[in-house]
Amino acid sequence: MGRRLRIDLGRRSINVIFVREKVNFKFFPRKFRINAKKEYNFLTKLHEANVNVPKPISHISLSNSSIVIREFIDGVFFQDAIKRYHPDAIKRLLINVITELRKIEDIGIYLPEVASVYKNIIVDGEEPYIIDLERASFTKKLIIPPFLSRIWRLCSNPEIRKKLEKILEIEKILSVAKKYKTNRDLNMILEIFKR
Q: By residue range, what is the domain housing residue 147?
Protein backbone atom coordinates (compact mmCIF):
# COMPACT_ATOMS: atom_id res chain seq x y z
CA MET A 1 0.00 0.00 0.00
CA GLY A 2 1.18 3.48 -0.87
CA ARG A 3 1.19 6.52 1.32
CA ARG A 4 -2.16 8.11 2.11
CA LEU A 5 -0.83 11.55 2.94
CA ARG A 6 1.93 13.52 1.27
CA ILE A 7 3.31 16.96 2.04
CA ASP A 8 5.20 18.93 -0.60
CA LEU A 9 6.79 22.32 -0.11
CA GLY A 10 6.29 24.87 -2.84
CA ARG A 11 7.94 28.21 -3.32
CA ARG A 12 5.07 30.14 -1.73
CA SER A 13 2.87 27.33 -0.49
CA ILE A 14 2.58 24.00 1.25
CA ASN A 15 0.69 21.17 -0.43
CA VAL A 16 -1.09 18.64 1.73
CA ILE A 17 -2.13 15.80 -0.54
CA PHE A 18 -4.59 13.05 0.23
CA VAL A 19 -3.33 10.53 -2.31
CA ARG A 20 -6.17 7.97 -2.28
CA GLU A 21 -8.82 10.64 -2.31
CA LYS A 22 -6.94 12.50 -5.09
CA VAL A 23 -7.31 15.85 -3.32
CA ASN A 24 -4.62 18.51 -2.90
CA PHE A 25 -4.94 21.29 -0.30
CA LYS A 26 -2.53 24.06 -1.29
CA PHE A 27 -1.95 26.41 1.66
CA PHE A 28 -0.70 29.95 1.02
CA PRO A 29 0.39 32.26 3.87
CA ARG A 30 -1.54 35.53 4.26
CA LYS A 31 0.93 37.62 2.24
CA PHE A 32 0.30 35.36 -0.80
CA ARG A 33 -3.50 35.23 -0.57
CA ILE A 34 -3.72 37.08 -3.91
CA ASN A 35 -1.66 34.28 -5.48
CA ALA A 36 -4.11 31.71 -4.11
CA LYS A 37 -7.16 33.48 -5.50
CA LYS A 38 -5.41 34.01 -8.81
CA GLU A 39 -4.42 30.35 -9.06
CA TYR A 40 -7.96 29.20 -8.31
CA ASN A 41 -9.44 31.57 -10.89
CA PHE A 42 -7.00 30.46 -13.60
CA LEU A 43 -7.55 26.79 -12.74
CA THR A 44 -11.29 27.34 -13.12
CA LYS A 45 -10.96 29.18 -16.44
CA LEU A 46 -8.61 26.61 -17.94
CA HIS A 47 -10.58 23.63 -16.64
CA GLU A 48 -13.74 25.04 -18.22
CA ALA A 49 -11.79 25.38 -21.51
CA ASN A 50 -10.81 21.67 -21.38
CA VAL A 51 -7.14 22.34 -20.74
CA ASN A 52 -5.37 19.63 -18.75
CA VAL A 53 -5.24 21.18 -15.28
CA PRO A 54 -6.27 19.75 -11.92
CA LYS A 55 -10.00 20.15 -11.40
CA PRO A 56 -10.55 23.13 -9.07
CA ILE A 57 -12.67 22.24 -6.05
CA SER A 58 -12.69 25.30 -3.80
CA HIS A 59 -10.91 28.43 -2.65
CA ILE A 60 -11.00 29.29 1.05
CA SER A 61 -9.75 32.60 2.41
CA LEU A 62 -8.94 32.63 6.13
CA SER A 63 -7.54 35.41 8.31
CA ASN A 64 -4.00 34.01 8.28
CA SER A 65 -3.94 32.00 5.01
CA SER A 66 -5.71 30.99 1.84
CA ILE A 67 -6.31 27.48 0.60
CA VAL A 68 -6.78 26.23 -2.93
CA ILE A 69 -8.41 22.83 -2.97
CA ARG A 70 -7.94 21.00 -6.24
CA GLU A 71 -7.74 17.55 -7.74
CA PHE A 72 -4.46 15.73 -7.13
CA ILE A 73 -2.85 14.46 -10.31
CA ASP A 74 -0.69 11.45 -9.53
CA GLY A 75 2.22 11.38 -11.92
CA VAL A 76 5.81 12.44 -12.41
CA PHE A 77 7.29 15.86 -13.00
CA PHE A 78 7.90 16.70 -16.66
CA GLN A 79 11.71 16.63 -16.38
CA ASP A 80 11.59 13.22 -14.69
CA ALA A 81 9.38 11.90 -17.51
CA ILE A 82 11.90 13.17 -20.08
CA LYS A 83 14.69 11.30 -18.23
CA ARG A 84 12.73 8.06 -17.73
CA TYR A 85 10.59 7.70 -20.86
CA HIS A 86 11.44 5.96 -24.11
CA PRO A 87 11.85 8.37 -27.07
CA ASP A 88 8.47 7.43 -28.64
CA ALA A 89 6.67 8.23 -25.37
CA ILE A 90 8.63 11.50 -25.08
CA LYS A 91 7.53 12.45 -28.60
CA ARG A 92 3.85 11.94 -27.76
CA LEU A 93 4.33 13.79 -24.47
CA LEU A 94 5.99 16.80 -26.12
CA ILE A 95 3.26 17.02 -28.75
CA ASN A 96 0.64 16.82 -25.99
CA VAL A 97 2.35 19.59 -24.00
CA ILE A 98 2.58 21.83 -27.07
CA THR A 99 -1.11 21.18 -27.83
CA GLU A 100 -2.12 22.13 -24.26
CA LEU A 101 0.06 25.25 -24.36
CA ARG A 102 -1.58 26.30 -27.63
CA LYS A 103 -5.02 26.03 -26.00
CA ILE A 104 -3.76 28.28 -23.20
CA GLU A 105 -2.32 30.78 -25.68
CA ASP A 106 -5.63 30.84 -27.57
CA ILE A 107 -7.43 31.86 -24.37
CA GLY A 108 -4.93 34.70 -23.92
CA ILE A 109 -3.18 33.42 -20.80
CA TYR A 110 0.56 33.63 -20.24
CA LEU A 111 2.41 31.20 -17.95
CA PRO A 112 5.96 32.33 -17.16
CA GLU A 113 6.68 28.96 -15.54
CA VAL A 114 6.84 27.08 -18.87
CA ALA A 115 10.31 28.48 -19.47
CA SER A 116 11.59 26.28 -16.64
CA VAL A 117 9.11 23.36 -16.47
CA TYR A 118 10.53 22.25 -13.16
CA LYS A 119 7.53 21.39 -11.00
CA ASN A 120 4.71 23.00 -12.92
CA ILE A 121 3.88 20.18 -15.34
CA ILE A 122 2.87 16.78 -14.01
CA VAL A 123 2.74 13.86 -16.42
CA ASP A 124 0.21 11.05 -15.99
CA GLY A 125 1.13 8.47 -18.62
CA GLU A 126 1.66 10.75 -21.62
CA GLU A 127 -0.89 13.35 -20.55
CA PRO A 128 0.61 16.59 -19.24
CA TYR A 129 -1.19 18.64 -16.59
CA ILE A 130 -0.30 22.24 -15.90
CA ILE A 131 -0.43 22.52 -12.10
CA ASP A 132 1.17 25.84 -11.13
CA LEU A 133 -0.82 28.90 -12.18
CA GLU A 134 -0.25 31.46 -9.44
CA ARG A 135 1.92 33.63 -11.69
CA ALA A 136 -0.35 33.38 -14.74
CA SER A 137 -1.66 36.53 -16.38
CA PHE A 138 -4.04 37.57 -19.13
CA THR A 139 -1.90 38.65 -22.05
CA LYS A 140 -1.31 37.63 -25.65
CA LYS A 141 2.35 36.88 -24.87
CA LEU A 142 3.20 33.46 -26.31
CA ILE A 143 4.22 30.48 -24.18
CA ILE A 144 5.22 27.91 -26.78
CA PRO A 145 8.53 29.65 -27.75
CA PRO A 146 9.86 29.68 -24.15
CA PHE A 147 8.84 26.02 -23.81
CA LEU A 148 10.72 25.13 -27.01
CA SER A 149 13.75 27.05 -25.74
CA ARG A 150 13.59 24.95 -22.57
CA ILE A 151 13.54 21.76 -24.64
CA TRP A 152 16.58 23.02 -26.55
CA ARG A 153 18.40 23.74 -23.24
CA LEU A 154 17.62 20.21 -22.04
CA CYS A 155 19.80 19.00 -24.93
CA SER A 156 22.86 20.09 -22.97
CA ASN A 157 22.36 16.86 -21.01
CA PRO A 158 23.95 14.16 -23.24
CA GLU A 159 21.48 11.43 -22.22
CA ILE A 160 18.45 13.61 -22.91
CA ARG A 161 19.96 14.90 -26.15
CA LYS A 162 20.45 11.33 -27.37
CA LYS A 163 16.74 10.62 -26.79
CA LEU A 164 15.55 13.89 -28.30
CA GLU A 165 17.72 13.44 -31.42
CA LYS A 166 15.67 10.33 -32.21
CA ILE A 167 12.41 12.25 -32.29
CA LEU A 168 13.25 15.90 -33.07
CA GLU A 169 15.30 17.92 -35.49
CA ILE A 170 17.12 19.61 -32.61
CA GLU A 171 18.97 22.10 -34.80
CA LYS A 172 15.61 23.57 -35.89
CA ILE A 173 14.05 24.08 -32.44
CA LEU A 174 15.19 27.68 -31.87
CA SER A 175 14.52 28.88 -35.42
CA VAL A 176 11.02 27.39 -35.36
CA ALA A 177 10.38 28.98 -31.96
CA LYS A 178 11.42 32.35 -33.40
CA LYS A 179 9.22 31.97 -36.51
CA TYR A 180 6.27 30.90 -34.35
CA LYS A 181 6.36 34.30 -32.65
CA THR A 182 5.27 35.93 -35.91
CA ASN A 183 3.05 33.33 -37.56
CA ARG A 184 1.77 31.08 -34.73
CA ASP A 185 1.85 28.15 -37.16
CA LEU A 186 1.49 25.06 -34.99
CA ASN A 187 2.05 22.74 -37.96
CA MET A 188 5.49 24.26 -38.47
CA ILE A 189 6.40 23.18 -34.93
CA LEU A 190 4.96 19.72 -35.36
CA GLU A 191 7.02 19.25 -38.53
CA ILE A 192 10.29 19.25 -36.55
CA PHE A 193 9.21 15.95 -35.01
CA LYS A 194 10.60 12.98 -36.91
CA ARG A 195 8.13 10.48 -38.32
A: 76-190
CATH number, residue 33: 3.30.200.20
pTM of the model as a whole: 0.91
**DSSP 8-state symbol, 167:** H
pLDDT-flagged residues of the chain (< 50): 1
CATH number for 93: 1.10.510
Is residue 195 in a domain? Answer: no
For residue 99, what are the contacts with CB-CB under 8 A and spacing of at least 6? Answer: none
C-alpha Rg value of the chain to the nearest Å:
17
Q: What is the pLDDT of residues 2-13, one digit of tens each?
A: 579 999 888 889
HEC sequence for 6-50: EEEECCCCEEEEECCCCEEEEEEEHHHHHHHHHHHHHHHHHHHCC
